[in-house]
Design goal:
Elements (H helix, E strand, L loop, with lengths): L11 E7 L7 H11 L4 E7 L5 H11 L3 E4 L4 H7 L2 E2 L1 H6 L4 E5 L2 E5 L2 H13 L7 E5 L3 H12 L4 E5 L3 H9 L5 E3 L10 E4 L25 E4 L8 H8 L3 E3 L2 H16 L5 H13 L2
Parallel strand pairs: 1-2, 1-3, 4-6, 7-8, 7-10, 8-9, 10-11, 11-12
Antiparallel strand pairs: 3-5, 5-6
Length: 282
């Protein structure tokens, strides 16, 4: 049924805030989830200028918005503006999901958990006891590094051009974290590209690693989902690796938010199908 025809005076609302935000896939993902479960909910994208996150969150409370997704550049500002933080969000200093408990807002970070959920879902793989390398030291890399450590990885090595940023990200994995050099990637069980190299709009940029260093028994995940196949993914597959893009992580982090807001188990397959359809139509 057309989502617009299901709206009523009882419809409950969730939103994504960012700047820009009109390109966000979150409305497609969450509205597909609501429709699949027959829920009288709707999800909208709301562009919030930088510096106005506190006002946006206060407005969400006043309007009774049930939950918010938070995207760039607001994740740190949201962490500072909510009433309470989950343990993971506090460690990362970033929030990508906000749930409302009466007049109180709780900030969460679902990216890392979404990543490990995607590994289990798509690759049937768990990090326990594995040696993992994360390329990059930005927000996604930090979330993945922390999640891999908490999931029992034996080692989480961060590869990044800036030594200080690499050290800060690796520290999230505590005694299991370290800084590694690009030439070392052949020694890991899992390699995660958390850099923007290969993303649409970055054509002509070099790959984040030399594919000749890869081994067929490794697993590679490129968190980029647009394009669906990056040069790195194609090169890894030619070398016999199992390699996956970032669509499932995108959906699974949304699925965790969906559960926090609604109390229902997210219909992941319907959300993946909506995401792939939305990407194909761009």
């Amino acid at each position: 049924m057309d989502q617009r025809r299901r709206l009523s005076g009882h419809t409950r609302l969730a939103v994504v805030i960012g700047d820009p935000v009109r390109h966000s896939l979150s409305p497609a993902i969450h509205n597909a989830g609501f429709a699949a479960l027959g829920m009288d909910w709707a999800f909208l994208a709301c562009e919030v200028p930088e510096g106005r996150v506190p006002e946006a969150l206060a407005g969400a409370v006043a309007l009774g918005v049930e939950g918010l997704s938070v995207t760039m550049p607001h994740k740190a500002a949201a962490a500072a503006a909510v009433d309470e933080l989950s343990a993971t969000a506090r460690l990362l200093g970033a929030v990508n999901c906000v749930s409302r408990r009466g007049d109180r807002l709780v900030g969460h970070s679902t990216d890392g958990g979404g990543f490990t959920d995607a590994l289990a879902d798509e690759a049937g793989w768990v990090p326990a006891g594995a040696r993992c390398a994360v390329l990059g030291a930005g927000g996604a890399a930090r979330a993945v590094t922390l999640a891999l450590s908490e999931a029992g990885a034996a080692e989480v090595a961060v590869v990044n051009r800036t030594q200080g940023n690499a050290e800060a990200a690796a520290a999230l994995a505590r005694d299991r974290g370290r800084v590694a050099q690009p030439a070392e990637v052949g020694g890991f069980d899992l390699i995660v590209n958390a850099t923007p190299l290969g993303m649409s709009g970055h054509s002509g940029a070099p790959m984040p690693l030399d594919p000749d260093l890869l081994r067929p028994d490794q697993l590679l995940v490129d968190l980029i989902y647009e394009p669906a196949e990056t040069a790195l993914l194609a090169a890894a597959r030619r070398r016999g690796l199992r390699a996956f893009n970032g669509v499932r992580m995108l959906v699974h982090q949304a699925a965790r938010a969906f559960g926090l807001w609604t109390g229902a188990e997210a219909p992941v397959d319907a959300m993946v199908a909506a995401t792939e359809q939305a990407l194909a139509q761009r």
